[in-house]
Every structure is written in structure tokens, then in C-alpha cells.
Amino acid sequence: MDGYIIALIAVGCVVVCLIAWGVWENHAVQCNSVEVASEKLPAAFDGFTFAHISDLHNAKFGRGQKNLLARLRESAPDAIVITGDLIDKRRPGMRRALRFAELAVKIAPVYYVTGNHEAKSKEFPLLKEALGRLGVRLLLDRAETIERAGERIVLAGLSDARFETADKRAFAAVSAEKLGHFLPQDGAFTALLSHRPELFSVYRAAGVDLALCGHAHGGQFRIPLLGGVIAPDQGLFPKYSEGLYREEGKAMVVSRGLGNSSVPIRLNNRPEVVKVVLKCGK
């Protein structure tokens, strides 16, 4: 009997430790750095840094989002970019998202595009208005120029295709059409904010040099050597789940994101801020 009780206690301790580790892992934000080199990048932008976040989903990272904001400051960004799903259609409310935005704009200029959850949420019109009041730059199917020492790059934002159609088969065509209306054609280095990494081929065809995306949640559960297990709109073992991808001379950085939605837990997949450093060269 004593041995049985000891075994139960041991199993209980293991379970408690696993739960504690899981809770910690889902709230311990990392700052991970990625360098993206391009021959098109003007010399004045060598070392220019984006702090890239995605998929907050109304998650909490310390009181007043202090832990998330600390990772942002750690990245020392020239600009902060948000690639959608600040809010969550399953968890109404904008307080955490707006508190984050309110404090983030004090660190660096903040640029934002929508995700599928904004498209599905009745709160989005209020969120859009509030973000604008806070000074967040809303790149909703439009582009802006960033200037530095007399040189320039273009930062563009693609609003999620879910605003136009619920037919997933049409997302690529809808996105391509919209990009054709607002992307510049003057050969300037162009970075695009867009929620969906599965549309990388669309971004490449439109002439985007660097796409910054989210949506995949890092594959939700990550297996060493195999990568992410499942991602929205990519299914099992997604092609694009986190980090830097290069195809046909173009680049895409996919954030693992911060919060969770329909699947409430991550495994081996900590939330992150991605420090994206632009470099001149190949």
C-alpha cells in the first residue's frame, strides 16, 4: 500500500510539473532575431529593425501587458508591426489589445493590418477607430513610404481577404487583385504586412521583397526536427509555420504569434516577438 501511495504521489507531482511548465511556456514571451538581406535595400536602411508581433488574441502577458512590452523594448525597434488577430471573435473585448497599442506607440511607430478574427468580429469597427485615435498606422490595403537619410522603402499592408469573401478558394485571387491596386511599381524595396503566410506565392508574384505574416501560430504544437503540427488554412505539418523563408529571391518572416484561439494551448512553442533586422546584400 505504501508503494502504491508513493507511486500516486510521484505521478501527481509529474502531472503538476507538466501543467506548471505548460502554463509558463504559454505566457513566457521570447524575443527572437532574424536577419533579412536584400540587394535592393538602400544603404541608409542597413540595420533597420522591425519588431514583429501577431495573433495576440486578447491574451494577457503581465499586468498592463508589461512582459510583452518588455520584449518589444528589448528588440530596440525602428518600427513595430502587427500582422492581425489582435482580438478574438471567441473572446469579446478589446481592453488588452488597446492597452498594448497605447503603450507600444510610445516605443516606436506602430503599423497594423487585420487578420481573420477582425474580419469575423462585430467589434472591429470600434477597434479600428480606437487604434487610429491612439496613433497606430492602419495599413488597410494601402502603402506608406518610410524615409531615412534621403532614401526610402515602402511598407504596405494587405487587409485580410476574409473581409471580402468567406470562400477560402478565392483568397489568393482576392489578395492578388488588391495588391495590384496599391503596391508601388517603381522598384523600391517593399515590405508587406499580411496575416496569411500560405499566400506567399501571391506576394512574390506582386513584387513584394519581404512579407511579414502570422496566422500559423507556429504550428500550435512543435515537434523537434519536424516543426509545427497544424496551422489554420495549411492543415497538418504546414509548410510555413515560423521563421524565415526564401523563395525565388523573395523573403517571408512568419511569427509564431502570442495568443491562442480555438486550440487553447501551445506545446514546445513559446509566444514570441520577432526582431527582423534588414541588411544590405544577398
Describe the structure.
It is a single chain. With 282 residues, the chain is an alpha/beta fold. Helices cover 28% and strands 27% of the residues. It contains 7 helices and 16 strands. It has helices at residues 2-25, 66-75, 95-104, 116-120, 124-134, 171-182, 200-205; strands spanning 30-38, 49-53, 79-83, 110-113, 137-138, 142-148, 151-158, 190-194, 210-213, 222-223, 227-228, 230-231, 235-236, 243-247, 250-254, 272-280. The strands form 4 sheets. A 6-stranded mixed sheet has the order 1-16-2-3-4-5. The chain has a 6-stranded mixed sheet with strand order 6-7-8-9-15-14. Strands 10-11 form a two-stranded antiparallel ribbon. The radius of gyration is 20 Å and the shape is globular. The N and C termini lie far apart (68 Å).
Q: Please write the string of helix (H) and strand (E) elements.
A: HEEHEHEHHEEEHEHEEEEEEEE
Query: Could you say which structural class the secondary elements and strand pairing correspond to?
Result: alpha/beta
Multimerization status:
single chain
Radius of gyration: 20 Å
Q: What sort of overall outline do the alpha carbons produce when their principal axes are compared? A: globular
The number of strands is 16
Helix content percent band: 25-40%
- Assess the beta-strand content as a share of residues: 25-35%
